[in-house]
Amino acid sequence: MFEKDILESLDLRNEESYFLLNFIFYKPSNQATKIQRLIKDISPSIFRRIGEAAIKANKRMREGLNQEFFKSYVGLQNLYYMIPVKVKQGDVTKYRDLLDLYDALFTGRPIKKQHLIDKFIEAINVKRLDKEGYNLKSDQDKIDWTLSIAFYLLNANMLIKFFEFTGCLKEGNPLNISALKVSDGIKTFIEKMNYNEQQSAMFILGYLIGEIGNAQYRRLDGNKPILNKLNFNGIDKTKIVRLTNDVFAKLKQEKIRAFNEVTYFELKRLIDSNIASWKLNKNENLFYLLSGYSFATTQPILKEENKHE
């Protein structure tokens, strides 16, 4: 729409007409204007590419969730609510990471995926601890924090796909899901998100934690003690092995092992074959684990919404 408005406001009857845009991010400062970032020589066509990437990312997430009516979108506007920024008395501070992302989108500059995931983990802890002075408040924060971060994680995965479709992130080497012994729903999500083998292992571990959490939620009047076993500051290799063993015991305790036994042993196979050469860092481990947790947690809710639609 912005590109269309620009074109309609200019006299471009000369077929050789050509123009570029400059973007200035600024804020008032004591009757003056403080320039925060200047991004020069941007083609108006960038808005079409960004819009197309947003539509593709939403489509990919809907396919991954098998939910036709998944309503969240990512793009220029709600990117602000995905990256933690300090806000003091209405004044935005520590905004460099956010401006770097806008800069990358407009210029096609590559983004470091690890740094993006670090910001996601920071945002999750802001939500989990209900920290004041951040830009991350939303309607989802009115619900239980575990659900709030679950929906946030789905949007974070969608944002990664968005950056891939804009060319700012390279897609990884996905796992061949044909031999994966898990449910079709898990397979589909892993395939659509292009997870590799180690990312898939953490996703499946998180999924099983989510299933345990769902059982505990029903049994314990809304509580999920299994989440107390997670270190929200990151998960190292030693903790992965310990969590894998804990999950097996909890599946039995919650009387849901029979429904998840095949999935668990597929998880164990992936962990055992990869742990010696593990490449994900502690924040990446937590991110993909929480993505699996989010998938298991939101599936019943989204299916119910889909019925109403």
TrEMBL record:
Domain of life, per lineage: Bacteria
Entry-linked InterPro entries: CRISPR-assoc_prot_Cas8b (IPR013389), CRISPR-assoc_prot_Cas8b/Csh1_C (IPR013420)
Pfam families with a match to the protein in the record: Cas_TM1802 (PF09484)
NCBIfam families: cas_Csh1
The protein's name in its UniProt record: Uncharacterized protein
